[in-house]
Amino acid sequence: MWKSTVDWLVFTVFGLSANDHLAKALHFFIYDTVKIFFLLSVIIFGVAIIRSFFPPERTKKILSKFPELIGNVLAALLGIVTPFCSCSAVPLFIGFIEAGVPLGVTFSFLVSSPMVNEVALIMLWGMFGWQVAVTYIVSGVLIAIVSGVVIGRLKMERHVEDYVYQIQMAEAEIPNSSWPERISYAKGYVFEILAKIWPYVVAGIAIGGLMHGYAPQDLLTQIAGKTNPLAVPIAVLIGVPLYSNAAGVIPIIKVLMDKGMAIGTVLSFMMAVTGLSLPEGIILRKVLKPTLLAVFFGVVALGIMMTGYLFNWLL
C-alpha cells in the first residue's frame, strides 16, 4: 500500500516519468525514509524493553560467573542487547576487569556491542530482508566470540594499563524496575535514539537515492564486485577511519548492493565502520597498551575480512 502511495505521489502529483533519474532517486528517498523510521520506532522500543533487564551492573555480574568460552558466548550475545557508544568503552572495560570478568570475555563484549547494534539490525531487515539481517547478527557474534577467545588465549593481561587493576569501583545497586518504568524508559529511549540518528538516516537515504538514480552500475561492479579479490580488505581499510553511524551507512550500501557490490564486501565495510572505528581505538588507548590495542584491531579486522570473503564465496 505504501509503495502504491509513493508511486502516485512521484508519478502523478509530481508528474515524473518512471524512467527519469530524478524519479528513481525521489521514489527511493520517500519510500525508504518512512519505512525505516517506522521500523526504527517499533523495534527500538522492543529492544529497549529487553535492554532494561540488562543494566551494566547486571551484565558485569552475569559475565563474572562464567569461565572463558561460555563467557565469550554470553558476552557476545549480551552485547547485542546492551549496545554502547565509543565514549562508554573505557568505564565499561574498567568495570568488567574490576568485577573479575576475564580479559578475553571482556573483549567479546567490546566487539559485539558496537558491531551488532539494533539500528543496523532494523535497517538491514527492512531494506534487505531477514536473511541478510540474520547473516549480519551471526557473523558479528561469531567474530566477537572468536576474537575474545584468541585474545584470552594469548594471555595479554600485562598489556592492560597498570592503573586499571588498581581501581576499586564501588558496587552499584542493580535497579529493579517496574513495567510502567520499563515502558517509560523504552519510550524515552526511542526518542533519544531517533533524535541522535535522524540526520544520519535522512542524509544516508538521500545519498542512497542519488546513487540509485544516477550511479553507473558497471563501474561499481568492476570496483567492488566478486571478481575483485582486494575489494574486501579495501572496504575494511576505508571503513575503519570512516567514523559514521550505521544508520547513515546502510542506505548507501543498499544501493551499492543493487548496483553490483558483493554482500560480503558490504558486510565487511559496515562491520569495520561500527566495530573498528578510529575514535573507539583512541579512547581504548587510555586503558590498553599499544600492543594489545594493535592485537585487538588486527584480530577483529582479520575476522571481518574472513567473513567478507566467506559470504562472497557462498552467495
TrEMBL record:
Membrane topology: Multi-pass membrane protein
Principal location listed in the UniProt entry: membrane
Intracellular or extracellular location(s): Cell membrane
Keywords from the named record: Cell membrane, Membrane, Transmembrane, Transmembrane helix
Record's GO cellular component terms: plasma membrane
Spans traversing the lipid bilayer: 35-54, 74-99, 119-151, 197-215, 230-253, 260-279, 291-311
Pfam families to which the protein is assigned, alphabetical: ArsP_1
Domain of life (superkingdom): Bacteria
Family statement drawn from the similarity comment of this UniProt entry: Belongs to the UPF0718 family.
Name under which the protein is recorded: Permease
Organism in which the protein naturally occurs: Hydrogenispora ethanolica
Organism classification: Bacteria, Bacillati, Bacillota, Hydrogenispora
